[in-house]
Amino acid sequence: MSENRFFQQVNSVMGDYRPEVPQGVYSGMRQKLWWSNFTRFSLTSMNIWYMLLIAGSVAAWFSFGPEASSVQQPQLPSEQVIVSSSSEIQRTEQSSAESPETPETVKPRNMDVSTQNIPDAVVQSQNVSAQVEPQAVSQNPIETKEPETIQTPITVDSPQVGDAVKKGTKKGLKVKSYEQTEKK
Amino acid sequence: MQEFKEIIDGCIRGERAAQDHLYKKFSSLLFGICLRYAGNRMEAQDVLQEVFVKVYNNIGSYNHEGSFEGWLRRIAVNTSITNYRKNLKHAYQKDVDDLMKTAEEPASFEDLEFTAEEMLQCIERLPPGYRTIFNLYVIEGFMHKEISDMLGIDVNTSKSQLSRAKTHLQRELKNIATVKI
User: Fold this and answer.
1) Which of the four pLDDT bands, split at 50, 70 and 90, describes residue B101?
2) Fewest C-beta atoms under 10 Å: which of A87, B2, B21, B36?
3) Rounded to a whole number, what is the distance in Å from the CA of B56 to chain A's nearest CA?
4) What is the span of the domain harbouring residue B26?
5) Is the same domain home to B78 and B114?
6) Which residues of A fall within a CB distance of 8 Å from B43?
7) Which residues of A touch B116 (CB under 8 A)?
8) Which residues, including other chains, have CB under 8 Å from residue A169's CB and lie 6 or more apart?
């Protein structure tokens, strides 16, 4: 039998072969079609991209929305360290010498706690306790912001403040605590 | 042709009735194609489902110029080839195994009548590589150059695999004929 004849015979038998399709194929095809449409982006129909967008929006709203900011509790400072330059401290000393009874009236210019210019600065710790007079407290701009900070007793002898004073002393800086200033 | 146009337009609009109509009309034809390329019925069913998903999703790209049935056939063949490539790693091993068997004895095929199911049974027993090339050349009518481009193989490989597929198929058919007699 020649090659062509054999191929023609196969072609004639199999070319238009139409077997019966099992029933389950249709439902499976429908599921695949639904999933295909669901995972494909379309402006007109609901799909996975819209759902991801909605989920992302909800997550962002819970993370950064107005309720999230109200839920966050204000962080109470455990201690307040005022960093000021040596020149300002000298000025403070001078003014305290002139009027020893009111040391709290001197307002340091750099009140930003985050400024940690340690070599040029003198760390001054504050004991915000009941010993501080309300008038003096009201003159301090930091303490007037959050009155709750006044209620948190912080002692000068805390190890953190002591460390800061020690570090400052080691580096040859003049360290003065708030209490010392107050005593003067 | 007008009837097809209505079905096609309905499918483009996403109408379920039109999709069902298309499925009823062409599912058996496309299932036959899938069966020829797949190794078994389950695999063919999976391929047929993928074919219809592709048809529904891309029916808008049909330009109404060529034969719609030919367009559907082409999608079925391409999907079957994609499926063959997916299983290529396992298919290669089977090809080598079967090559050793077929090289032993060239079959002498006599002119006998066979049903489509008998032929399909023999085609399914072919190694996937042989089966794909045999279908593309004998039934779809592609040339060896086109087959080599489609499958990413050498033209001579296509020719030699077709020859081996023919030998293998003739031997299988001869066995069936012997059982019949």
Assistant:
1) low
2) B2
3) 8
4) 2-85
5) no
6) none
7) 13-14, 17, 19
8) A175
Question: Residue A176: beta bridge partners?
Answer: none
Q: Count structural domains, chain B.
A: 2
CB A36 within 8 A of CB B57: yes
Q: Which of B27, B57, B170 sits opposite A21 (nearest CB)?
A: B27
- Same domain? B172 vs B125: yes
Q: What is the DSSP string of A128-179?
A: -STTS-HHHHHHSHHHHH-THHHHS---TTSHHHHHHHHHHHHTT-----HH
**Domain of residue B176, CATH code:** 1.10.10.10
Is pLDDT of A115 > 60?
no
Dist CA B118 CA B152 (whole Å): 30
Task: Write out pLDDT tens, residues B41-55.
Answer: 999 999 999 999 999
Which residues, including other chains, have CB under 8 Å from residue B41's CB and lie 6 or more apart?
A22, B35
- The answer to whether residues A110 and A85 touch, using CB atoms and an 8 Å cutoff, is yes
CA nearest to B120 within chain A: A14
Domain limit, last residue, from B85, B117, B144: B85
Same domain, B79 and B94: no
Are B60 and B137 members of one domain? Answer: no
Closest Cα in chain A to B121: A14
DSSP state letters, A7-28: HHHHHHHHTT--PPPPTHHHHH
What residues are paired with A82 via a beta bridge?
A: A124
Alpha-carbon span A18 to B24, nearest angstrom: 12
